[in-house]
């Protein structure tokens, strides 16, 4: 038995439909604006290294034959900017892929060997000192996650710690009843308090001039945010200017 719909019922249904429609349109519009902004930021960001490359190439063209020092300086700059452009394009493609769909394949892994591997490759690549400080029962701890994505996440934070500091970098692993915490601490330039909420925005860099020599892209932490969301990891940043930064990854025990 179905109640016969009254005029008021129909009106309600119509109002509900209209509401849903408006909501969907707003969401689509917001996504479209975000995409549009991303494309416009991306072209701007890619133009900057291109301009540098162009001007150095033209300098070599004009005066390089008579001045080997110019060739040296120009090739160095061209190389650096090309690497930056390549990194940027790779990260942009990855972000676009993650925006579409993030495929996560979880497996139970031993955490310590994964962390050690990541640290070893960082040490080898950059000849920096990374200290690992762990609770004794951490030696054999296992966790169900996507190993490659967890490694990528750790790499992004270790790479930033390295880029924005000169001293040793510490990695602490601790455990509470509900969480496994991995904290990465550097004693570097730090992040101003008012900038902390923005560091996960795409292309955001605290101070372009201050950051220029590190050759970053402003995309690392936005990738980290997406990966952490996919793995249900909470990220906490604490930082003091000129004292250093600690990023803590909070892995829920599922
Ligand atoms: P980038 O490629 O520029 O490092 P990220 O998205 O990884 O881009 O980081 C965004 C900005 O946040 C950086 O440009 C830098 O200004 C700041 N930042 C990130 N990590 C650190 C850190 N460990 N110490 C100081 N500043 C940092």
Provide key terms for this protein:
alpha+beta, binds adenosine-5'-diphosphate, 5-stranded mixed beta sheet, 254 residues, 55% helix, 6 helices
What's the quick description here?
This protein has 254 residues and is of the alpha+beta class. It has helices spanning 7-63, 68-100, 111-126, 147-163, 208-211, 220-231; strands at residues 107-110, 130-134, 142-145, 169-175, 179-186, 234-240, 244-252. It contains 6 helices and 7 strands, in the order ααβαββαββααββ.
Topology, pairings included?
Layout: H1 7-63, H2 68-100, E1 107-110, H3 111-126, E2 130-134, E3 142-145, H4 147-163, E4 169-175, E5 179-186, H5 208-211, H6 220-231, E6 234-240, E7 244-252
Parallel strand pairs: 2-4
Antiparallel strand pairs: 1-3, 4-5, 5-7, 6-7
The structure holds adenosine-5'-diphosphate.
Adenosine-5'-diphosphate binds at residues 160-161, 163-164, 186, 188-191, 199, 204-206, 211, 216-222, 245.
């Amino acid at each position: 038995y179905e109640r016969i719909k009254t005029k008021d019922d129909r009106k309600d249904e119509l109002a509900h439909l209209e509401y849903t429609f408006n909501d969907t349109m707003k969401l689509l519009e917001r996504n479209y604006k975000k995409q549009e902004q991303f494309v416009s930021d991306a072209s701007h960001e890619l133009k900057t290294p291109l301009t540098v490359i162009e001007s150095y190439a033209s300098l070599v063209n004009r005066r390089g034959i008579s001045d080997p020092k110019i060739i040296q300086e120009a090739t160095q700059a061209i190389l650096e900017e090309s690497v930056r452009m390549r990194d940027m394009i790779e990260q942009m493609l990855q972000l676009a892929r993650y925006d579409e769909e993030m495929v996560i394949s979880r497996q139970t892994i031993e955490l310590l060997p994964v962390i050690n591997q990541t640290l070893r490759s960082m040490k080898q690549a950059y000849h920096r000192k990374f200290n690992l400080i762990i609770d004794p029962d951490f030696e054999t701890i296992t966790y169900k996650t996507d190993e490659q994505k967890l490694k990528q996440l750790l790499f992004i934070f270790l790479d930033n710690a390295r880029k924005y500091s000169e001293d040793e970098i510490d990695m602490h692993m601790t455990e509470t009843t509900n969480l496994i915490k991995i904290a990465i601490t550097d004693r570097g330039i730090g992040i101003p308090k008012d900038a902390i909420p923005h560091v996960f925005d795409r292309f955001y860099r605290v101070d372009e001039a201050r950051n220029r020599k590190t050759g970053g892209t402003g995309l690392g932490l936005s990738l980290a945010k997406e990966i952490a969301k996919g793995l249900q990891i909470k990220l906490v940043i604490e930082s003091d200017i000129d004292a250093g930064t600690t990023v803590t990854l909070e892995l829920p025990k599922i």
